[in-house]
Amino acid sequence: MSNDQLPEIKLDTENLYREEMFTDHKVGTLRRMTPVTPEGELDTNREVLFVGQAQMMTPAGALPLNFEIEADSLSDALNKFGAEAQACLERTLEELREMQRQQASSIVVPGQGGGMGGMGGMGGGGIQLP
Q1: Do 89 and 81 form a contact (C-beta atoms < 8 A)?
Q2: Is 108 contained in some domain?
Q3: What is the top-level taxon of the source organism (predicted)?
Q4: Would you state the pLDDT for residue 130?
Q5: Structural domain contains residue 26
Q6: 3-class SS at 69?
Q7: How far apart are CA 108 and CA 105, in angstroms?
Q8: What's the structural domain count of the chain?
């Protein structure tokens, strides 16, 4: 790809946020995303966003969980963190189970493995759920 074919990389100056992170160094991280103008001033026309981050350990390694939390304040978001993390985990596990069902129901023809070694190159048994 030549340089003239590369996409232009540019921040959306009408959609800027100041990010603050809060963590207990155990369970996860809560990010408060405060909308700002291109000058860095508070943008009162947009809502503050809260984003939770956690991870679950699985036999295949750490499974990242990222989820938005509808909240009016930091304390409200902190109180809702656990329930939202649990809901995100349940959705993620269901998506993984669905991927397993689709993989198990696909027709396997000898010699046509595609060279991926199972699901996404994971080799062996694909994804294993706890």
Answers
A1: no
A2: no
A3: Bacteria
A4: 53
A5: yes
A6: strand
A7: 9
A8: 1
